[in-house]
Amino acid sequence: MSKKYFIKTFGCQMNFNDSERIRGILRTLGYEPTENWEEADLILLNTCTIREKPDQKVLSHIGEYKKIKEKNPNALIGVCGCLAQRVGWELVQKAPAVDIMFSSFNMHQLPELINQAQAGYKAVAILDSPPEDEDKVWDFPTERDNLYCAYVTIMKGCDKNCTYCVVPQTRGKERSRSLESILEEVRRLVDDGVREIHLLGQNVTAWGKDLERPTPFSELLYEISKVPGVERIRFTTGHPRDLTDDVIEAMADIPQVCNALHLPFQAGSNRILELMDRKYTKEFYLERIQRLKESVPGIALSTDIIVGFPTETEEDFEHTLDVVREVEFEQIFSFKFSPRPGTPAATMEGQVPDEVKTDRMKRLLDLQKGIMSKLAKRYEGTVQEILVEEEREEGVLIGRTTTNKWATLKGGSELLGKIVRAEVREASPFNLNCELLEVVR
Ligand code: 5AD
Ligand code: SF4
């Protein structure tokens, strides 16, 4: 009987994509996935450490999963990803049930690590910086649940060093994946029936600067759009500073690039932006958005916001509300500032009390709620192109518009993977109820 693995993923889409690759590696080793951790021979937690909450969650999960060893003494528990990278050996000491630990730099070593752990050793591979051979990881296939939309990691790491952020510690310096390697994966995915390619990186718009032949990100967009069968292209996450005019022009010019962009602004106050070392001002951000809106009419914007950064005053926070009011994002992801060990902001003077953060977060979300209802109404009566991704129940399909909104429509499974045109009958912030008009392609 084949061995089974259970994997639990925390954090961002990059982590999610790492898990897809880990699943591919496990498949080549003969492991089958299971949804039930109690019957697994290998339990893996792919962790995040961006804020304090995910850290705590991981430890409580290990506490639960270690019970597996009572039933199956040979079962292995592994921890990988950003928390593993940040905490290292200390985590094995805190949670001795952990047999395997590796960071995102060491994913390709998983086969050796499993061997080592099966032989009874603690298998820990946590490097301080990416190894020479990390590109080997691209040789492994990914294993995905969504048949029509696929993530493709195009770069790793981040050079921006925002003062609140732990990512440069956990993911290292920016490294771009080569154009050939990306295109090869895109071709393979399209051959498998994928229609939407979602490019990933901590800072995708900086792709290509460090390549042997430095290449702008906009060129990558053009190259991918030329691969026959690519119907849609998305990319996350960009930094406002790298959203150069050529990227905006490419977005406007390439029909496959979706009408949506996630562009974190983090804070509206220039004083706070400077303390965060974001290297732009509120005015610069708003100018980029203005430019985007003009060039790509109807673009749906989303963003990340941190409330309660050290020393943030009521007046600073008002600037954040201001940006939210002016831009009218379709979606915002807001977070209370969480001090991360080893980052400059963690030890800054003027830490903001939790009650104040909670209050600001609530006001932000109240404001956003109104904006979302207003924007949703604008969809009513419009005709949208939807990529049908899933049959939720018999005869009920769900898919996404190019503006990244979920849509529901009636239809049969023959529409799965098709791009259809549909009229929006009723719109709420998280769903568009649509009626099918025609199949486009
Ligand atoms: N505290 C709160 N939020 C944070 N983020 C990153 N670091 C922190 C932190 N220390 C948020 C940012 C980022 C998103 C992924 O998480 O908004 O864009
Ligand atoms: Fe979490 Fe950041 Fe790591 Fe993603 S890159 S898993 S958000 S710490």
Low-confidence stretches: none
SS-based class: alpha/beta
Oligomer: single chain
User: Shape from CA axes?
Assistant: globular
How many helices does DSSP assign? 14
CATH superfamily (homologous) name of the largest domain: tm_1862 like domain
* Spatial order of strands in the largest sheet: 2-1-3-4-5-6
Give the CATH architecture of the largest domain: Alpha-Beta Horseshoe
Tally of structural domains: 3
Provide a compact summary of the structure.
The chain is an alpha/beta fold and 441 residues long. It has 14 helices and 19 strands. It has a six-stranded parallel beta sheet with strand order 2-1-3-4-5-6, with helices on both faces.
Explained architecture:
This protein has 441 residues and is an alpha/beta fold. It folds into 3 domains: 4-125, Methylthiotransferase, N-terminal domain (Rossmann fold); 134-377, pyruvate-formate lyase- activating enzyme (Alpha-Beta Horseshoe); 383-439, Beta Barrel (OB fold (Dihydrolipoamide Acetyltransferase, E2P)). Helix content is 34%, strand content 23%. The strands form 5 sheets. It has a 6-stranded parallel beta sheet, sandwiched between helices. A 5-stranded mixed barrel has the order 15-16-17-19-18. A hairpin with a 2-residue loop joins strand 18 (419-428) and strand 19 (431-439). Helix 9 packs parallel to helix 10 (245-253). It is globular and about 60 Å long. The model has no long low-confidence stretch (mean pLDDT 95). It binds 5'-deoxyadenosine (5AD) and iron/sulfur cluster. 5'-deoxyadenosine is lined by residues 50-51, 164-165, 264, 266, 304, 306, 335, 337-338, 340.
